[in-house]
């Protein structure tokens, strides 16, 4: 007899409240020091996250469905088979407005060009972060809609 699949709780919280809460077989993300994946019974961990996508594999009960969530940094804490991600902003792929994300990308690219022309390092850094967030949202949207 096959062993039952080991699932754990995954929650994503922002200042606006709970964005995501499901059980999954794995959660993958980009930490500031590289890619990470957490599985059932992983050792406790607390690590900062980079701007990027969170991928949650939901398990056999959901035909191994993968949920995609864009986050703009934050932290992940994992202990006792509960993964909690706290982020300033998080957006599920199904909620991303692609037109708005593409417009944000174009604005950020224009701000980067302008900041470079003015040699404004602070504005350049802000625009580069805005570009990363917009590109991440587009990539997360594409992951859901173009499998």
TrEMBL record:
Domain ATP synthase epsilon subunit C-terminal: 95-140
Domain ATP synthase F1 complex delta/epsilon subunit N-terminal: residue ranges: 8-90
Keyword Membrane: yes
Annotated membrane topology: Peripheral membrane protein
Principal cellular location given in the protein's record: membrane
Pfam families for the chain: ATP-synt_DE, ATP-synt_DE_N
Alphabetical UniProt keywords: ATP synthesis, Cell membrane, CF(1), Coiled coil, Hydrogen ion transport, Ion transport, Membrane, Transport
Top-level taxonomic group: Bacteria
Keyword Cell membrane annotated: yes
GO terms for cellular component: plasma membrane; proton-transporting ATP synthase complex
Coiled-coil spans in chain: 98-132
Annotated compartments: Cell membrane
One Gene Ontology term of the molecular function aspect: ATP binding
Function: Produces ATP from ADP in the presence of a proton gradient across the membrane.
Record-linked NCBIfam families: ATP_synt_epsi (TIGR01216), PRK00571.1-3 (NF001846)
Summary of subunit composition and partner proteins: F-type ATPases have 2 components, CF(1) - the catalytic core - and CF(0) - the membrane proton channel. CF(1) has five subunits: alpha(3), beta(3), gamma(1), delta(1), epsilon(1). CF(0) has three main subunits: a, b and c.
Similarity annotation: Belongs to the ATPase epsilon chain family.
PANTHER family: ATP SYNTHASE DELTA/EPSILON CHAIN, ATP SYNTHASE EPSILON CHAIN, CHLOROPLASTIC
Protein name (Swiss-Prot/TrEMBL): ATP synthase epsilon chain
Biological source species: Lactobacillus porci
Taxonomic lineage from the root: Bacteria, Bacillati, Bacillota, Bacilli, Lactobacillales
């Amino acid at each position: 007899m096959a062993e039952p699949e080991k699932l754990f709780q995954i929650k994503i919280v922002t200042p606006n409240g709970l964005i995501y809460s499901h059980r999954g077989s794995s959660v993958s993300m980009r930490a500031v020091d590289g890619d990470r994946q957490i599985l059932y019974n992983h050792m406790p961990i607390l690590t900062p996250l980079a701007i990027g996508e969170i991928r949650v594999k939901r398990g056999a009960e959901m035909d191994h469905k993968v949920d995609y969530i864009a986050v703009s940094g934050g932290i992940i804490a994992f202990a006792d088979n509960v993964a909690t991600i706290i982020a300033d902003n998080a957006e599920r792929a199904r909620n991303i407005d692609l037109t708005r994300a593409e417009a944000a990308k174009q604005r950020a690219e224009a701000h980067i060009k302008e900041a470079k022309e003015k040699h404004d390092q602070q504005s350049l850094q802000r625009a580069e972060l805005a570009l990363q967030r917009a590109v991440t949202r587009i990539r997360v949207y594409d992951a859901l809609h173009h499998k």
